[in-house]
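Data availability (excerpt). All sequences and predicted token strings are deposited with the supplementary files. A representative entry, TonB-dependent receptor, is shown inline so that the format can be inspected without opening the archive.
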Amino acid sequence: MIHRLPFVFACFYLLAGHYQLVAQPKPLGQVVRGRVYDASTDRPLGGASVALGAPSLLVAYTDSSGVFRLPDVPVGRYTLTVRYLGYDPQTTAEVLVESGREQVLDVGLRAGARTLPETVVKGQRPDANLTSAQTITPEQILRYPATYLDPARLATAYAGVVNTNDQANNIAIRGNTPNALIWRLEGVEIVNPNHLGNAGTLGDRPTASGGGVNILSAQLLGTTRFLTGAFGPAYGNTVGGVMDMNLRSGNDERHERIVQAGLIGLDIAAEGPMGVPGSGRSYLVNYRYSFTGLLGLLGVTFGGEAIRFQDLSVSLTLPTHGRGLLKIFGVTGNSGNVFTALPKSDQVSAKDLYNIRFRSQMGAGGLTYVRPLGARVTWRSALVVSGNQSSRYQEFAQLPVGFPPNGIATQVDQSTNVRATLTSSLGVRLSGKTTLQAGAYLTRVQQNLTAQRLPADTGAILPPDVVDGTVTGWLVEPYANLQWQPSPAWFIQAGLHYTTFSYNARSQLLEPRLSARYDVRPGRTISLAYGLHSQLQQPGVYLAQLPPTSASIIDNTGLGLTKAHHLVLGYTHQLTPSAYLKAEAYYQYLFDVPVALVNNSVTGAFSALNLSETTEFVERPLRLVNGGSGRNMGLEITFQQYLTKQLYWLLTGSLYNAEYRTLDGTWRESRFNGRYATNATVGREWTTAATPATTGKARKRIQTWGLNARLTYAGGFLDRTIDVTASQGQTSTYYVGYAYTNRLAAYARADLRIYWRKSNPHYSRMLALDLQNVTDTHNQAYSYYDAFQRKIVPQYQLGIIPVLSYRWEF
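Structure token line:
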């Protein structure tokens, strides 16, 4: 019996060790999978190595379809590095692996075999722009402070970008008007995709490219490319900037849900496979209803206004025969705000005397199709239709005593903008060093604008219609782009973009584009880009007119395109695979800008470069000619560290000057010439693992705390001098000429975002508090003459706003 004791003890020891291993909780994990392909031809790249680094190192290889899969990846943040022989290696930073959702990544590589360390790219497809390009991911939108889940608000953290009013996402890029920015969805320009387009504007009327909230929730967005100058040949109809949004595909293997509630609204998203899991067919749908709208149903208002919006978005991904991919998508939404005149005893400003109703609707839908034609050619096509409509009605609840009979008692503004675009392109790999992309956009544009100003006295001279007209025509934009890499250190692009708009004969231009990048040494790159660009005029500029009874005649329908030369010189130093330092110097010369034909002390300083609202010009129209010019020049510095070892930062600084010139030959400061802008965004995460008391197959629960801060300090924009005498007794503000000579105070703001994220075996959740303008700084937006108070009144931007949100992924 005694001689058996060692055997019994050994069995007991092994058995105890077995139970100890069983009782040890497994690390919480999730699947990371995706596809690697040639970014120029969409051909899958089999045999590519895919490595996830930090906190652990995991490696996989793609199969013949370019697909890779890493199962049971521990929850955390990673950098994903993809390498393939004959292609530039690429590192995707800030990959977040959570327990509630699979991480699905599509990575596009470009041929090159450069000698420098792998380039950090946050998105999945490298952008063709060699300069002035940024990539914005949904994960950043959820992490950075004060974004309102909107890529345009996050873009203000980058160099050269300033928000014109923090009530909305109207942004001025390198001193340009916000109207110079265009929005694209799935590679096609669309109408303004924002709710509450009148937010934060001087006349409470909508703008062409901004609003209070983006209609596309971050739940639905994939990679967004943000371009600020010297655009590639595929981009047209802009002289200022491009916000190029893409929709992500739903999970094609399992069903997932996201529920988020906060001050922005109630957000519900669902995605999953259509049919057999793993077939590539998937759906993604998102619905959102504003929190302010929910409070409005309970009778709660904000500054006397009832504000609400809602939207619905759908994206279907359907593989087809021959390795083709069809994507069908649609988005629709509506928004509005209502202000009801206050009782006489509560009236303190002119606005309190009015009933004001603003309504807007927006929709976009279409399909995209991508199909490889052999190993060297890819065909891409899309059909996208978008449209928006807005209306604003303002009237006195009761006419004030002594109101002038010719004064405006009722204002009505209505606008409709519809775009239908068919586009097709071919990407051809001519050799291992040369790629050609050629295509065209064919767009039917129809813009209707009506503005009525009704006097108190129906017999007054002032007519009811200030403007009522339509801008319609075909916008045709063919383009071609040749990419050539003669050596590992050089990369050259040359192309052409042609613009013609059938609305009038003067709207056409051939636009050359050229850019080059040279790798001075590993990790150090010099780039140079030039482009000639053009943009259509806003409908309010084309349609502005004088009353038929006037002795003068205004007809601006013959105006041509506004044009601009862009020149950008850049230097990038890749300090580490996750950090870089970048400097860009740029010069932009605008010409053929609409300015006043009559050159006198009153109208001589007018330029369309200073316009912002859609009907800002129609009330006091001028006869315009394409005789003006402008120049924007500056230097931008960016120092960015992606989230690595639980720390990230983005430090940017800009020095710039924006001027314009009219027929009198005088150079003046532009309205959006802030001269300088600085941003510092810093964030830190702390992660802990909690072990549950249960045994068996229990897994650790991961908790992460995040603290993110952003500081902004920028020079103030300019305002016009108010003509107090002319404004007295009127219902709108009158100015002394059109020159912007009064500089507003510098803009200063601090934002703070704190979040707590917890990952459980089958779901994850996040609780966040976003303290916007945490110091409650009163930044001046503009000044106006208040007829009720009979004095000039400064208008300020938003004060402190606490935004509490809860997010659940499962």
